[in-house]
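In response to the reviewer comment on reproducibility (Comment 2.3), we provide here a single inverse folding case reported in full, input and output, so that an independent group could reproduce the run without further information from us. The structure tokens appear first.
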């Protein structure tokens, strides 16, 4: 599995949202999601995207996942956090520390996760989803795209 995440904010802090997608081992998109956060920093939005993706993977019992994000700061922080660094060493802000702690809890229950920084161009689709999160105040839109033997896609939306 491969998960790409991104965030968008109109100001820092400002109106923020995030988006992501999960692909299977063949590169087919399985899940697309975005969410509106209200007023938040860009780092908080990126962390929330990571947490949301980890929740989807955990609930779906999916493992062996590669994460890609275009925020080098967040990807490197998650790598340090995943190696057991105390949240207060990753960030001084208490709200960010809370999200780091929740992410660390997810990471402890999952197998084989890798985190890679990618350039913005590689994250274009999730950038669009993150901007949808900024624009639409409906929370946590998730679309499961399931490939059928006929090659069609079935959409199931949940809010």
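Designed residues, in position order:
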């Amino acid at each position: 599995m491969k998960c790409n995440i991104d965030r968008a904010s109109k100001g820092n802090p400002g109106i923020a949202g995030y988006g992501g997608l999960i692909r299977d081992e063949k590169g087919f998109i399985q899940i697309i999601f975005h969410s509106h956060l209200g007023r938040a920093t860009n780092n908080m939005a990126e962390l929330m995207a990571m947490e949301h993706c980890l929740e989807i993977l955990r609930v779906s019992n999916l493992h062996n996942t590669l994460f890609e994000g275009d925020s080098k700061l967040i990807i490197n922080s998650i790598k340090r956090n995943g190696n057991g660094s105390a949240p207060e060493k990753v960030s001084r802000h208490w709200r960010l520390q809370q999200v780091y702690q929740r992410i660390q809890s997810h990471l402890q229950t999952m197998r084989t996760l890798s985190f890679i920084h990618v350039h913005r161009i590689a994250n274009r689709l999730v950038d669009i989803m993150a901007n949808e999160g900024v624009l639409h105040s409906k929370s946590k839109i998730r679309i499961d795209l399931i490939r059928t033997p006929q090659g069609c896609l079935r959409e199931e939306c949940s809010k």
